[in-house]
Sequence to fold (283 residues):
Amino acid sequence: MLRIAVQNKGRLNEQSLQLLRESGITIKEEKRKFLMRAPDFPVELLFLRDDDIPQTVAMGAADLGIVGYNEVAERGCDVQVLQKLGFGGCRISLAIPKGERYTGVEYFNGKCVATSYPNVLNRFFAGKGIKANVHTITGSVEIAPAAGLADGIFDIVSSGGTLISNGLVEVEQVLQSEAVLIGTPGLEEEKMSIVRQLMSRFESIRTGYGKKYLVLNIPQSALDEAVKILPAMRSPTVIPLAQSGWCSLQTVVDEVQLWDVIEQLKGIGAEGILVLALEKIVL
Ligand code: PRT
Ligand code: ZN
Fold:
């Protein structure tokens, strides 16, 4: 039996549970408790605040945890980062009031910076030889400069909207983060074999994120050109059509490239283009 710590509410909760569901680990949420056993996999889930997950895993009270890398970096607990999970992406950045002249990280010498991530920030400043006053506050860090509590902030940024609405400008991106799977160091082989099985399922799901399955018809004469346009995993599947001179192409495309690829394919005569949702890619 493997115990996995997940966030009990908050931003990573739903996607963590969805990843587990898609991996075949379902829990009945309507009567959710602190600790729940999955009926269909040798796993139980422990629901915690994200702040407590790294330490719980380091102590071995949970074997695995799903948590933002930012929390792992801040807590400095003895855990193994086993896998990036491809959601919860954000960064921790330094930001200062708009209109301030910023010439480089030396700007922060002698300045006061408010943050909930003092350890990450102190390490960054120490590495750059900056002597600043790091002021630890929890919650609403972004209002600290306007409230006269700090000259700048060091906080999580995702879209950047919160900084803009508080009159702040991001000047240094210090740490890139996403949800990660962490594990207790030195798990016994029996548990590790379940961990490996889970990680391979997670990887299949992650590989499918942001990808679409594209099906289209193309004149045989344009096939070579179409193959050059399509960024397939190996090469696209080509199936002849009943109508002579035409074939069907099937391939996987990154969502970000999708419209570009479609327009290029239409330009060489593609027709009947279907874009289908892709659930998993098992490598
Ligand atoms: O209650 P608990 O302690 O479990 O949760 P929490 O309130 O500490 O964390 P929660 O649920 O807010 O976030 C959990 C994790 O989500 C974080 O540790 C990050 O790894 C990740 N994550 C991803 C984010 C964001 N994106 C994010 N945008 N965490 C917080 N934010 C906040 C940020 O603090 C700032 O206030 O959103 C604001 C900035 O967002 P933008 O889009 O305006 O830039
Ligand atoms: Zn938290």
Summary: The chain has a mean pLDDT of 93.
